[in-house]
Structure formats: structure tokens, C-alpha cells
Amino acid sequence: MSSAPSNSASHCYRHPDRQSYILCQRCGRTICPQCQTQAAVGVHCPECIREAQATAPKRKPAILSSLRRTRDAPVVTFSIIGVTALVYVLQVLPGSPVTSALAFYGPLTATEPWRLLTALFVHSQGSLLHILFNMFSLFIFGPLLEGMVGRLRFLALYLIAGLGGSVAVLLLAPYTPVVGASGAIFGLLGAYFVIQRKLGGNNVQLLLVIGLNLVIGFLPGTNIAWQAHLGGLIVGSAVALVYLRTRRRDQRSTQVALVAGIVATVLGLTVVGIQLYSF
Length: 279
Fold this sequence. Notes:
The chain has 11 helices and 2 strands. It is mainly α and 279 residues long. The protein has 2 domains: 47 residues; 196 residues, Up-down Bundle (Rhomboid-like fold). A hairpin with a 4-residue loop joins strand 1 and strand 2. 30% of the residues are buried.
């Protein structure tokens, strides 16, 4: 049996000493097994592979995409929910002192001022609906606001609104023990209302929700601290208004100063409350 005639058409274009009868599916050149890359249909030569890679859309590595998703996740919102849930578990343990140690009570403000904020993380032990309602509201509105204003601003908004709610209780109902994140939640509702109004969104339903919850707080027998709702709503709206008016990068120092001014005002009202009731 005679051998096939030797010519360039039957030899690899990159290795002339290697005979082959396999052609690149794209350019038609002869390629040996070493130069072949399996494609969806047939095989491709190294040059066609490089050309395809050069013209293909760039894709981010999976690890970078994962980091991007982590950066976009509402970490602060989920962290607050997690901490609040953990505190509630500690509350319901037999003989736990957590509630009495963290709840807000006006006469203790001068000696234990941290209760103004720690009260946000404790809830009524006898009503599971209390914490579920607050955390569900945070789960709904938290990610929206955190994505709009950023993590640090969102955390500041939550804590300052909660502080405003506690101070409102100090001024209007100083001898009423209070627990719960309702003041902070109403601060988020007020902030979302302010931002949505500025952006031209439809706020009618949100306004109804806020109004309905405020009214419920005034009903006898509901055991709801409407003072905290009102204080959180006012302070949260004020902080959101500052965020809106100082959005440019060159206004950051102004934003910090104005937010600090709101905090100073709230703390000033705390001092007024302490002196007013001679705590």
C-alpha cells in the first residue's frame, strides 16, 4: 500500500513535519492534535481561539462578582435584625435580666443614659408580634433605604431616629417603661417618605400606613408608646432631609455638621427632660 503524497495542505500549518487531515472549523487550516481546541462544532486552531477571546465580552471573575454582591447586600439591616433577634432570645431565658437592664425608663436617664439606645434592641417578652412586626418592617424598608443612602448613613439614621423616639418618651411620658425599635422604624418610614417625595414617587400608601399606625398608638388599651413613634418620625425625617440637601461629594462636611447638629439638639432635649422632671 502506498502512502499519501506529502504536501502543505495535509500537514499542520504550525508544525510542517506533522501530517494531519483535520481542519480548523473557522479558518480551514490544517492542524495537528496538539494545536486543536475542541469547539461546539469541530475544532479551532490557536489563532482563531485567540481572536475569539479578544472579541468576546469581558466577564468578571466569579470572586469579584461575589464581592460585588457582598458590597450591595444590606449588611447593616440584616445585622440589626440579627442582633435584635439574639437579644430577644436572651430576654426569654428563665430569670434573664436583659429586659430590665436595657429597657428605657425616664428616671434612670441621668445615671444610665445608654438606655436611650439599648431600648431599641429589646421587645415585649409577652408579645412575639411586637418584635415580628418591627423586624418585618425593618426587613421591608431597611434594604431600600440602605441602598439609597449607604451603610454608614443608614446606621446613623436608624440610631438617631431611635434616640429621638426615646427622648420623646422622656419628655412626654417619662414614667412609662418603654422597649422596642418602633421609634427607629418610624424614623425609617419618615425618611423613606421624604426621599420618595423628593424623587417624585407615589407616597399615598406610605402616608396611610404612617397615619394609621400613629392613630393606633392613641387608642386606649393598646399599650403602644405613640411618643416614641412621633419622636422617631420627626427625627428620621429631619436626618433624611439633610441627606437629600447635601448629596454632592463636596457637601460631605456640611452633611456631617448638620447631622451632628440634629444629634446635639436631641441630646439637648434630653438634658431639658432630666432637669424638667428633676431626675
